[in-house]
Design brief:
The structure is a single chain. This protein is of the alpha+beta class and about 500 residues long. Helices cover about 55% and strands about 15% of the residues. It is elongated, with a radius of gyration of 54 Å.
Length: about 500
């Protein structure tokens, strides 16, 4: 961590363009208009700090790329862009952002350093200047290369907020690596170039140029293809001379960055990535690495021949003349063997490096697996003993509860028994005699009841017979009365006629 005195009073969100450069509040989400340069329009998580400035780089009214810039280290943390049609790189004049150093400045345009010296307050307090690189072994190297764009885009990349200190040799090889990877390995396997999201970044070291600008410990590149059957891949380039660019998984790259870093939302659709396409990409990456090894071998050969020429120049003229023929013949004969030994050397170094990396990776995975197993075993053991302890502690309490419940049950039974006895004792003796004699009375009453039933049935039958005979007798009497009244009249009528 840097001293707290180097931290700014507040973090700024700066959105710069060649037309204007405006500062907005901290409540602005992400990179505003430049969110489109990130997968799912989501910037990386875990990299932003209070001393970082978010810059939306624009040119001619159009957004070109996004940059997270460290005003403490004075180098970009990363630059994010989408793949475009490559063009021929042309050197441009470097520019600065006046409102980073002077938020109250009235200048609303990117401007050359010469023009800003007398017109911008605190120039160079929060961003690097070209003068910081003078009389040093470092050049201004771009993270987002101008060669990856057409002429219209290239001017926007020549801003010092997109540059970090690099040696001349390293910068040439970095440019060669990025251009080769984009042209051969990444863009051809992502369908439409607009679906390829690229982030290039720098991790600062403790070494500084003139105690101002941090020299990167290593540079990194992460690519995410959002096309159907997409993929994600990362690369690392250490600043040490002779190191070949390394291909890594994005998750492994995130482990080398600050903790809890996520470069792409949802890990660039990890579940839907095309492994076969990634294998083809790795083949092209190996081709790019072989090109770099070949270039490195040529450079080593040139350095060796240059040292040999210097030693030859130090010889006496006569000795040089006599040894020139022998030297020429010797060099002709030795060159194939030197090349062969160099090739064997680089092959052995590469094989040994890969073997050591595999061993280191296996050991790391084994240690991680062992740590996870020990952690889980310890957690299970602790949980087991805690559970047993809780049960052991709870046994006396549970026994007491059971005893109390048994005593309560016995007391309830005794109480119910006493209540029953009291109720029995409170019943009169006559009632008890009646209760006891009730079955006897019931059995003795059965014949009487049957007799009463028989008498009732006989009386009912006799009543029915009396009713029937009475009804027939009444009916007969009525009929007889009617006939009696009618028959005399008929007899009288018959006697009158006579």
């Amino acid at each position: 961590m840097r001293p707290a005195s180097l931290l700014p009073l507040c973090s700024l969100f700066v959105f710069c363009r060649l037309v204007d450069c405006r500062i907005v509040g901290e409540d602005e989400a992400g990179f505003a208009e430049c969110n489109k340069f990130f997968y799912e329009e989501t910037p990386p998580e875990g990299l932003a700090e209070s001393f970082h400035v978010k810059i939306c780089q624009q040119y001619n009214g159009k957004e070109r790329f996004a940059t997270l810039y460290s005003i403490q280290d004075k180098i970009p943390v990363y630059s994010a862009f989408r793949s475009a049609v490559s063009g021929e790189s042309r050197e441009q004049g470097w520019m600065i952002e006046p409102q980073i150093d002077d938020p109250n400045s009235n200048f609303s345009e990117m401007m050359n350093e010469e023009d800003a010296v007398t017109s911008v307050n605190n120039l160079g307090s929060k961003q690097a200047l070209s003068t910081d690189y003078l009389d040093s072994d470092y050049q201004k190297g771009q993270l987002y290369l101008s060669s990856l764009n057409s002429d219209d885009f290239q001017v926007a990349t020549y801003t010092l907020t997109n540059a970090a200190p690099m040696t001349q040799t390293f910068m040439e090889r970095w440019y060669m690596n990025v251009n080769s990877l984009m042209d051969l390995a990444l863009a051809p396997y992502c369908g439409n170039r607009d679906d390829l999201y690229v982030i290039t970044g720098a991790v600062p070291s403790d070494h500084r140029v003139k105690d101002k600008v941090s020299v990167p410990d290593f540079l990194w590149l992460a690519a995410c293809c959002a096309a159907p059957g997409g993929w994600a891949m990362g690369f690392i380039k250490h600043m040490r001379d002779g190191d070949i660019i390394e291909d890594v998984m994005v998750k492994d790259l995130e482990k080398l960055l600050p903790s809890k870093t996520q470069l792409f939302q949802d890990n660039c659709g990890e579940a839907d990535q095309d492994t076969e396409k990634m294998k083809k990409i790795l083949e092209m990456v190996n081709h790019v690495q072989d090109e770099e090894r070949t270039l490195q071998a040529k450079l080593s050969s040139k350095q060796l021949s240059g040292a040999r020429n210097k030693r030859s120049a130090q010889l006496l003229p006569d000795e040089a003349t006599e040894s020139s023929l022998l030297g020429t013949i010797g060099s002709i004969v030795a060159t194939p063997f030197v090349k062969l030994f160099q090739l064997i050397y680089y092959l052995m170094v590469g094989i040994l490096k890969n073997v050591l990396y595999c061993i280191w990776y296996a050991i790391r995975e084994f240690i991680s697996l062992l740590e996870n197993g020990v952690h889980r075993m310890c957690s299970a053991t602790v949980s087991y003993f805690m559970t047993i302890g809780e049960e052991l502690v709870s046994i006396p309490w549970k026994v007491i509860k059971v005893i109390v419940q048994i005593i309560r049950a016995l007391l309830r039974i005794l109480c119910c028994l006493l209540k029953t006895i009291c109720r029995i004792l409170s019943i009169p003796l006559r009632v008890l005699v009646d209760i006891v004699c009730f079955p006897i009375y019931t059995v003795c009453a059965i014949p009487t009841v049957l007799k009463d039933i028989a008498l009732g049935l006989g009386g009912t039958f006799c009543l029915v017979l009396d009713t029937a005979f009475g009804s027939f007798g009444s009916l007969f009497h009525v009929v007889f009365s009617i006939c009696k009244r009618i028959c005399p009249k008929i007899s009288y009528d018959i006697s009158g006629e006579l």
